[in-house]
Write a structure and sequence with these properties.
The protein is an all-alpha fold. It has two domains: about 80 residues, Helix-hairpin-Helix base-excision DNA repair enzymes (C-terminal) (Endonuclease Iii, domain 2); about 110 residues, Orthogonal Bundle (Endonuclease III, domain 1). About 65% of the residues lie in helices and about 0% in strands. It starts with 8 loop residues before the first helix and ends in a 5-residue tail after the last helix.
C-alpha cells in the first residue's frame, strides 16, 4: 500500500479552518479540569500512566475499568480489574499505587497546591518527568498530563506529532527524543513553527494528532 503524500502547510491550514472550533472546545474542557479537585487531577495522571506506549483510547478504557476503586484499592484489586483484557495489567497498577502512596506521604495528596507551587512551566513538568517516585511518566506523558489539566505550552511529542513535524520540515528526523534536552529542542522548534504560521502550539498539537488518528481526544 503506497504511503500518503507528505503533509503540506496549505493542507494544514485548511484543516485548521475546519477543526478550529472543535479543537478550542477541547482545550476549554482541559481548562475546566484545572479547577477540579485533587482526586480528579490524580485520575488524569493515572490516565497518562495507563495510556503510555498504548493509545488515548486504551488509556480511557483502562481508567474506566478502575476509576471507582482508584483512590483506595490495593495493588491486587487494581490488577484483578485490569487483567480482564487490558495491556500491562501487572505493571501499570503498581505504578499507580506507588505514585499514589508517594503523593499522599510527601504532599498530603494536595495536588493542586503542589502544581501551583512551581515558579515556571519547565520546573513543573520536570518534577513529574524526572521524579523516580512518580512511576510510568516521562517527558511526553508529563506534558500530556499537564496539558489535560489546563496548563498550556507543552508539546506532546508522540510518534504522530513527530512524523507530522518531519513532513513539514520542522525537524529532520522523527526519532523518539531520548533525553530532556532533545525533547526541549523539538518543542522549541514546534513552538517557533506555530508562531510563524499563527496557530497556537496547543491547538497545533491537537490538529496534528487528529490528522494521523482521525480524532480529537485528550
Amino acid at each position: 500500500m503506497p504511503r500518503p503524500p507528505p503533509l503540506t502547510l496549505e493542507e494544514l491550514k485548511n484543516d485548521y479552518r475546519i477543526k478550529a472550533g472543535v479543537i478550542r472546545s477541547r482545550l476549554k474542557e482541559f481548562e475546566r479540569l484545572h479547577q477540579a479537585g485533587d482526586d480528579e487531577i490524580f485520575k488524569e495522571l493515572c490516565f497518562c500512566i495507563l495510556a503510555a506506549n498504548s493509545s488515548a483510547e486504551m488509556g480511557m478504557k483502562s481508567l474506566a475499568a478502575i476509576e471507582d476503586i482508584l483512590l483506595e484499592a490495593d495493588l491486587p484489586a487494581l490488577q484483578n480489574r485490569l487483567s480482564r483484557g487490558f495491556r500491562y495489567w501487572r505493571v501499570r497498577p503498581s505504578y499507580i499505587v506507588h505514585t499514589r502512596d508517594y503523593l499522599r506521604r510527601e504532599y498530603g495528596f494536595k495536588l493542586r497546591e503542589l502544581l501551583q507551587s512551581f515558579p515556571d512551566p519547565d520546573g513543573r513538568r520536570a518534577f513529574f518527568a524526572g521524579n523516580k517516585e512518580i512511576k510510568g511518566i516521562g517527558w511526553k506523558e508529563s506534558s500530556h498530563f499537564l496539558r489535560n489539566i489546563g496548563y498550556r505550552g507543552y508539546a506532546i511529542l508522540d510518534k504522530h506529532i513527530r512524523n507530522c513535524l518531519c513532513e513539514l520540515g520542522v525537524i529532520r528526523k522523527s526519532r523518539k527524543p531520548l533525553s530532556p534536552d532533545r525533547y526541549r529542542r523539538i518543542e522549541r522548534a514546534m513552538r517557533d513553527f506555530s508562531d510563524r504560521i499563527g496557530i497556537g502550539m496547543d491547538e497545533l498539537d491537537l490538529l496534528l494528532w487528529s490528522r494521523k488518528t482521525g480524532k480529537i481526544l485528550k
